[in-house]
Each structure stands twice: as structure tokens, then as C-alpha cells.
Amino acid sequence: MNMPLNAETLDSEPLNRSQHRQETRLPTALELRGRFPVSESLAWEIAGYREQIRRVLHGEDNRTLIVIGPCSIHDEEAALDYGRKLKALADEVSDRFLIVMRAYLEKPRTTVGWKGLLYDPERTGRGDLKQGLERSRRLLLGLSELGLPLATEALGPFMMDYLGDLVSWTAIGARTTESQIHREMVSGLPMPVGFKNGTDGSIGVAINAMKSGAHPHHHMGISHCGSPAMISTPGNPDTHLVLRGGRGITNYDELSIARAVEELEKAGVNSAVMVDCSHDNARKQAERQQEIAREVMAQKDKGNSHIKGLMLESFLAFGRQDDGDDLIYGCSLTDPCLGWEQTEALIRSL
Ligand SMILES: O=C[C@H](O)[C@H](O)COP(=O)(O)O
Ligand SMILES: C=C(OP(=O)(O)O)C(=O)O
């Protein structure tokens, strides 16, 4: 017999859960941008980087776009050190490569784990978005002032309102490419966006994402002043596919790229392809990125004009480490990265 539902018999656990939810006020996007403003000259520089990336993706500039840098940033000093080295290298090879630094502040997790500087800058597990937003914006400004175009993954649907003016290329990760919320966000972003293939290796979700991202949308959001708002977006024509492998299957070989291009063309979307040399393509073995990058560049040199870019995970020190008291300077806390010497040698060899 069913029990009657009343105050005595009703499970109070869900009610307690909602009572335990806490809300902490954060600055609005306008307030944060006002505290850490972009100068007019920097804004023009960033507009110029976005245009250069667009030109590469649309085949008007033959250089190869390389999105490279740490898997995640946990230490601003190490990120700036890395940025200075990358800037010097980028200038040296700028006739062949358009180098954009990965400045990843939000990490999507398969289950749970540290979610990045923006969410938990002190890595206590308690989170501090106020400090995370401030430190993230200050860092992006510092890196931009080095003269580097920046890339990030847009994960939280409102984060780009706070940081997007400093970003020249954005990724939608494998775990969120299928999300309507992210596709709506892309539709209003002012920079080129790469959609990763799904974690299972499927390309169809990224193609659907490109179609949706190119479309105008109306969606729920927060105005720059912090009020709930209906956001209307025009559609983003500058999206492309990023091949990152999936579930133990790689997709950077000639046949996989040819199949991907065929599907892109059949769907009538941009056939530009970037290969992520890390993640499932490298089976999380950082050193494998070197042979993958060489192999993909060889395909490009042989005439595959759809290959427009590479993504590489690289930091000052090779590999990765677990968080703790005795951290190695410039070594990733998330996925393993190439070290600086390997990175420099690799880019020169390409
Ligand atoms: O790029 C980083 C990771 O691959 C991604 O954030 C997932 O990490 P996880 O599987 O360790 O949670
Ligand atoms: C999380 C990342 O990639 P993916 O979405 O391909 O796993 C990343 O590039 O840091």
C-alpha cells in the first residue's frame, strides 16, 4: 500500500539539500572588466589576432595555426614565464606559424577533480570564484601584454562575459560540444571557435555544433550589469572541427582526416581541421605529441589544404604531477605536457 505523503512521511533530504545551497555575490562582468580594463591599443591588437586566425581558417593565409600551452594554469608566474618564451619563439617562426597560447582557466572533468584557476585558485577544494575571476582576468591581461594571442576553453556559460574580450580563439571541449547552451554561447562569441569531436571520437556532434553555432539564437543569460536577460546572438561563421581522438581511437591519420573532411563538406560547413596532438590522440602520453605533429604537418606539406592547425599541450617542465606541497615549477597538474626544450625543438623542426 502506498504511504500518504505528509510532513512525517516525506523524505526531508531533498529539502535539506536546497536549504544548504549557498550563494556568494560575485562582481558583474562590467565591474570586473572595469577593474582590469583592456586599453584601446590592446583591444585593436586582439581584433587583429582574431582576424589573422580567421584568415588561416578560411584559407586566406597559408600559415599553420598552433594553439599551444599548458593543459591548465595553476601558477600565474609560471604561465607568464612560459608566455615570454613562447612569444620569442612565435616571433621567430611567424612566417610559417601563427602561434596562440593556451591559457586554460576552466577544466572540464570526467567525474570530479580540480576545475581550474577560475573556480578554485588556491586549490583547497572549497572554491573561490571571486578570487578566481580576478586572478584569471589579471593573468590574461598580463599574457596579452606580452604580445601573444590567447586561447581558452569556454566552459561556464557566463565566463566569456568576464574574460572573452582578452581571448582570440576559443575551444568548446569534447564533453560540451553536444550542449545546446555552449552552442548558443558560441553563436554570440566574437572570435573563431574550435569544436572538439566527442569523447567517443564522434564527429557528427561537432558538425551539428558548427551548424548550431552559426545560427542566431535567443537564450537565457545574464546581462553585463548582472541581471537576468534574454540574450540574442547573431551566429558565428568562424567555427571549425578539432580532431582529438576518442575512447582509445586516434583520428590524426590520413584516412581519418579525409573522412572528417568528407563529412564536413557533405554537411556544407567549413572544412578546416585542427588536430589536437594531445588527449586521446596521444593516449595521454605527452611525448607522443611530437610524432603526431610531424605526421600531420607531413600530410599538410603533401598538399592537404584542409589541415589548418595543431593543438599541443606544453609547459615549462615535462609531464604532470599530483598536487601537493613540493610542486615542480611549471609542471602540469592535469594532463601531461611537453617540456619547454622539447616544445622549442619540435616547433623549429616543423
Ligand atoms: O584536458 C584535460 C583533461 O583531459 C580533461 O579536463 C578531463 O580530465 P579528467 O579525465 O582527468 O577529469
Ligand atoms: C579538456 C581538453 O580537451 P578535450 O575537451 O578534448 O578533452 C583540453 O584541451 O584541455
TrEMBL record:
It is an enzyme of class 2 (transferase). Its EC number is 2.5.1.54. The keyword Metal-binding does not apply. It comes from the Bacteria. Residues 1-26 are annotated as: Disordered. Pathway: Metabolic intermediate biosynthesis; chorismate biosynthesis; chorismate from D-erythrose 4-phosphate and phosphoenolpyruvate: step 1/7. One of its GO terms (biological process) is chorismate biosynthetic process. One of its GO terms (cellular component) is cytoplasm. Belongs to the class-I DAHP synthase family. Stereospecific condensation of phosphoenolpyruvate (PEP) and D-erythrose-4-phosphate (E4P) giving rise to 3-deoxy-D-arabino-heptulosonate-7-phosphate (DAHP). This is Phospho-2-dehydro-3-deoxyheptonate aldolase. It comes from Marinobacter persicus.
